[in-house]
Amino acid sequence: MLPEFIIILPENYSFNYLNLFMENETTIEQLSYKNAEQSRILKSCLETWFKNPKDLQLTSPKVSYPFKFKNWIDISYLKLESVTYVLKKDDWIIGHMSIQLRPQFNSIHIFHLFVDRANRSKGYSKLLVNNALEYSKRKQIQKITLAVNRNNPIAIKLYQTYGFEIVGENKIGSYKMLLEINKSKNQ
Fold it and tell me: Where are the beta strands (DSSP E) in 45-174?
C-alpha cells in the first residue's frame, strides 16, 4: 500500500491531470512563425511530417500536396492573428497546434492540430486541446471553434469528449465544431 500524502497548491495554480501520465520531459511551448529561427524549426518539422499526403490533407485541406511551407504561411498565418504551440518530448517537437484569435466574437479557433505519427494514441492530442482550453480560460473566452475533416473519426471523437458539437460544414466539406465554455465537460 502506498503512503497517503497531501499536496497544497496555490489557488491560481492550474493542474493538468494528463501530466501525471506523461514523461517528465514533455512540455508545451509557444512559438511564432514571425520569428526567423522558430520558423526555420517549424518548417523542418512540418516538411518531415507532411511527406505523407494523407497527414497534410487531414490537417490542412486547403494546402495542396506536395507540402510547401510558404504556401502554408500564406494561407494560414499571414493575415490571421494567431498563437502557435508545439509539444516537445525530450526537447524534440512531436506536436503542433495553432489558435486563431477572434476577440470580436469572444472566441478562438483551433487549427493545425497535429501529432507526429510515432507519438499518436498516447494522449498527446489531449495535452494540446487542454492547452487551448486553458488559454481560453485565462483570456475569459466563451467559445472555441474548429474544423475537422469528416474522414478523421478519431479526431472527431476526441473533440466530442470535450463537449464540442458538430454545428455544420464548411465550404470544403469539413465539420465545423463548437464548444461553449460554460457547457464544457472537461473544465
Answer: 82-89, 92-102, 107-115, 143-148, 165-169
Closest-CA residue to 107 (of 30, 177, 13): 177
139's CB contacts (< 8 A; 6+ apart) are 108
Q: What is the mean pLDDT of the chain?
A: 87
User: What is the predicted pLDDT for the residue at 17?
Assistant: 42
Structural domain containing residue 124 = 27-183
What contacts 78, CB < 8 A, 6 or more positions away?
none
The sign of the torsion formed by the CA atoms of 179, 180, 185, 186 equals positive
* 3, part of any domain: no
Structure confidence by residue, pLDDT tens digits, 73-122: 999 998 889 999 999 998 899 999 999 999 999 999 999 999 999 999 99
Helix/strand/coil for 3: coil
When divided into structural domains, the chain yields a total of 1
Instruction: Say whether pLDDT at 144 is over 90.
Output: yes
Pair 69, 47: CB distance under 8 Å: yes
Q: Quick check: is 22 in a domain? A: no
**Per-residue DSSP letters for 27-74?**
EEEEE-TTSHHHHHHHHHHHHHHTTSHHHHHHH-TTSPSSP-HHHHHH
- Whether 87 is covered by a domain: the verdict is yes
State the CATH number of the domain containing residue 114: 3.40.630.30
Give pLDDT, residue 185: 55
- Report if residue 16 sits inside a domain: no
